[in-house]
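Tokens as discussed.
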């Protein structure tokens, strides 16, 4: 297990105060709140079930289970454009009868002019300009979701994970033909299925896919796995191989992390968002050297889900829905009336590896995307009263649910 750099954790905590206490963060310069965008059928008291967002040209898109749609917002006008729902065999699952594992849509990955969207048993392909679900790729038949993914644009291969399968696996899709070229299963060196899969990123410099694994026998609170792109492409067409058998594979311990988001930073940095399930544990953002797996900085800046890096500002943006006033995990890492959370958008200077500021966000605001051209940040959120566990959300101005908009600078 890596040794945490607690001096860095304490220093980051000491110098940063929560921005905008008692309301929206209406500063005139620097990172700040701008406005809210209403979403159809989302209002006060509604539990808004959304997931991953992405930038697709001049649109911000995100997955919306309440409306069983990929939602589209115009970046420049900040106007809601459309709920893209599909029909028949191309319809998204929506909330479904059970838990998140059986609901969709989930992940959203921009591929050229299209968006590949994880759904139950499948990946749906959406044309956001036309506002239609174009086609689908079936990846399973077990009734659980294909979730988060990432793109290798050099070879035109998309990786998307199915974390709740009996043995988690990742599907690799040729985006030119929209066909499955390989699958990689996740049974660890002890012969046990890993606990699940979270965000992934492709690094073109090293030709590697990186994915957060929720837990393995060796690293029960998470590991960062490097999947060499050449090894994936060497799998016979349509074949399946376990991750431990891939040539050049590496597994890096993330400490007591319970990882979620992942973002490639400057140089060889890769940032791992932790959402610790250990009551009272510090909520961490681990910055690792992706060539060696060493933890080079450990910041008290976790508690989020989607994590993004923006090159123009050289900053990370963490949608920290499970942040707390103490900076430590709530009971079992979950928000509740008895153990509340104080959701924030945490902004981290990637060069200094230090927290810049924290901006108040709405209930369960675990998704974030930033447009590099305009510096506009989009953060969906649920209504203040549902789910339970955000007593300060209404006082901070996040009442009805929808999408809050921030400026990066």
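Sequence:
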């Amino acid at each position: 297990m890596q040794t945490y750099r607690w001096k860095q954790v304490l220093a980051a905590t000491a110098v940063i105060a929560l921005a905008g206490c008692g309301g929206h963060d209406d500063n005139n310069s620097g990172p700040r709140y701008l406005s809210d965008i209403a979403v159809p059928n989302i209002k006060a008291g509604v539990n808004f079930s959304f997931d991953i967002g992405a930038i697709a040209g001049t649109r911000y898109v995100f997955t919306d289970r309440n409306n069983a749609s990929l939602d589209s917002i115009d970046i420049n006008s900040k106007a809601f454009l459309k709920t893209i729902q599909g029909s028949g065999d191309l319809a998204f699952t929506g909330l479904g009868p059970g838990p998140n594992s059986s609901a969709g849509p989930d992940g959203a990955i921009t591929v050229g002019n299209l968006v590949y969207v994880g759904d139950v048993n499948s990946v749906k392909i959406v044309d956001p300009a036309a506002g239609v679900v174009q086609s689908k790729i079936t990846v399973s038949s077990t009734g659980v979701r294909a979730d988060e993914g990432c793109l290798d644009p050099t070879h035109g291969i998309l990786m998307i994970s199915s974390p709740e399968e009996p043995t988690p696996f990742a599907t690799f899709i040729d985006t030119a033909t929209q066909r499955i070229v390989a699958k990689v299963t996740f049974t660890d060196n002890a012969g046990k299925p890993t606990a699940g899969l979270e965000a992934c990123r492709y690094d073109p410099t090293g030709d590697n896919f990186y994915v957060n694994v929720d837990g393995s026998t060796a690293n029960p609170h998470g590991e960062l796995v490097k999947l060499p792109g050449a090894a994936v492409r060497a799998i016979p067409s349509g074949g399946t191989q376990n991750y431990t058998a891939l040539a050049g594979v590496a597994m890096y311990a993330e400490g007591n992390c319970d990882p979620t988001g992942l973002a490639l930073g400057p140089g060889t940095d890769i940032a791992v968002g932790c959402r610790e399930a250990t009551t009272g544990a510090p909520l961490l953002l681990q910055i690792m050297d992706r060539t060696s797996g060493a933890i080079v900085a450990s910041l008290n800046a976790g508690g989020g889900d989607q994590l993004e890096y923006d090159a123009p500002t050289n900053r990370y943006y963490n949608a920290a829905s499970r942040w707390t006033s103490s900076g430590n995990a709530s009971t079992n890492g979950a928000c509740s009336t008895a153990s509340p959370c104080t959701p924030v958008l945490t902004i981290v200077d990637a060069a200094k590896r230090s927290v810049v500021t924290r901006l108040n966000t709405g209930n369960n605001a675990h998704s974030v995307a930033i447009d590099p051209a305009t510096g506009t940040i989009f953060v969906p959120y649920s209504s203040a009263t549902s789910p339970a566990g955000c007593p300060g959300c209404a006082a901070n101005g996040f009442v009805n649910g929808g999408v809050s908009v921030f400026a990066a600078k």
